[in-house]
């Protein structure tokens, strides 16, 4: 038997059903005996929603009113009535089992499952298996329209069924027409058999992922804005009703190994992924979650692993994983098992523990623990911030993907990172940010954070040809992340005006972007914390001479930076250190390199940092051959950094270590600091401490 089911929400209707997160307000159903071709009683039940504010489309299509819905039963009671009435109709027809049949998948996957999950009550087993009438119809009639284009009305028209929608109540016509379509499919000419129902997974299955797997990019999404304490089960609950692949939730970590509020989710097929994208800006608790497309490569980068030890650890399926952080470096397996205690036994004892270590075997203070059930895991989480030895231990829910991610990060960390080869840019001539009053620049505000140079060029269209060489400036915040702003230098003020008129509030991806004409001077004001919009320019809040941030100096040739500004920073966020004109003129330039440390040397009190200007075709940095570096050094008559191997890095120093202790450690292996004056600016006090050193210099 089939139970033909139709429903409607207080919001969108048709192809957008469930996409606006509105509640169910109507259920209509009827039992159909496929063998005797008899039907049971047609039932229509209104559902009382928590929010009775109906959309205009809902009012127009359904004819329902808030007053009428206010007298209805809530969803949990309606579903109880549904089960009772279906059982009674089946008994009358002499049947005992049934499967749901709905018009498409939206009612089951995008409405019923998410809503009941949020309201914390369980759906009966019948809602985890159903037939999609559109797919069955297309299988029976291959020459009909594509599944995604089917509706009840188009299927009825294809069969020539003469039903009049206006003669019946909303919902009643839909169910009667669906029943008529089913009977047509069962006729002698078709003899259609309902054999392969759609299924909804009862729960999310954990499991490992190998980097050698092939992941279809059409099945992966990126969820952004997650609460930091979210687990894979929380994310699976957010996507309740959709089938996530086994081990398909990968929580993303930041550079410190902590969750950054993003996750990559892999679904079983592209159809499920497309339904997941419709949940963009749905809520998890009080937070809305952004959902975007992602690629298989991104998923494998986060979730994939190659370690046999990890694969063996994760081979025990359907285990709850807990991450322990802050363990004493001397902690043993017995210590951890004793800390957890008998109330939360670890799966397999010592085999259920995985300590995270550096490549040389040193412990990191992290460990992962397996528990066989939710109860044991909850008992373990109650020990959050309890003391082991002399340290408090943090415990969090974790995932198989997080295990892979943490192990990949630590195991790929070199014992002694090698210094990069000195770099020079491929830009042939100096480039500057103009500081005049000519309004030949435009500001882009509200860019998607994922937008890159190519997206901006596509956004500007034909005006791309009017951009000055190296005239695209992405603006970064103090953390080195995109701020949503960009400045573009045009060839003339007229070109800037035309771009601002043509592109203002034009869409880029899913956001509109504001475009303002401005000058180089106004650009610098904005970078210092001022505001610029169509109403004009508001200066930075601090105008006292002693408090105002220094103005941005013009960008210098990328390969040449004054020696005292040899800050260790990434090239993509490079910004010259502010100084007086006299100091800039007196400082000789030198060739240097920029590892990613010491970002604090760059004006932390300013609002934004512009990235290095780039040309419309992205300019990168290339490692310079030794001859080129030597030539650059000869041309500037300044010393350059020694080649890799002449510097050493010291790890594990006591926090109270001073320069004297370090020099004593290297006694007899030092060179005179005079050989390095061009590289390291030493104070008089530090220079007096370094007595006749040879071969070593300490950074």
Verbal overview:
The protein is of the alpha+beta class and 699 residues long. The chain folds into five domains: 2-199, 2-Layer Sandwich (Nucleotidyltransferase, domain 5); 209-305, RRM (RNA recognition motif) domain (Alpha-Beta Plaits), CATH 3.30.70.330; 318-411, RRM (RNA recognition motif) domain (Alpha-Beta Plaits, 2-Layer Sandwich); 441-528, RRM (RNA recognition motif) domain (Alpha-Beta Plaits), CATH 3.30.70.330; 648-698, no CATH class. 27% of the residues lie in helices and 22% in strands. It contains 21 helices and 29 strands. The strands form seven sheets. Strands 1, 2, 3, 4, 5, 6 and 7 form a seven-stranded mixed sheet that branches. A six-stranded antiparallel sheet has the order 22-23-19-21-20-28. It has a five-stranded antiparallel sheet with strand order 9-10-8-12-11, sandwiched between helices. A hairpin with a 5-residue loop joins β9 (244-253) and β10. α6 (152-159) crosses α7. It is globular, with a radius of gyration of 33 Å.
Concise summary:
The protein has 699 residues and is of the alpha+beta class. It is built from 21 helices and 29 strands.
Mean pLDDT across the residues is 78
Largest sheet composition: 7 strands, mixed
Q: Kindly state the number of beta strands.
A: 29
Please tell me what the overall shape is: globular
Regions with pLDDT < 50 over 5+ consecutive residues?
415-431, 542-626, 635-642, 672-683, 685-699
CATH superfamily of the largest domain: Ribonuclease H-like superfamily/Ribonuclease H
Through-space gap between termini: 78 Å
How many distinct helices?
21
Task: Supply the CATH architecture of the largest domain.
Answer: 2-Layer Sandwich
CATH topology (fold) name of the largest domain: Nucleotidyltransferase, domain 5
> Roughly what percent helix?
25-40%
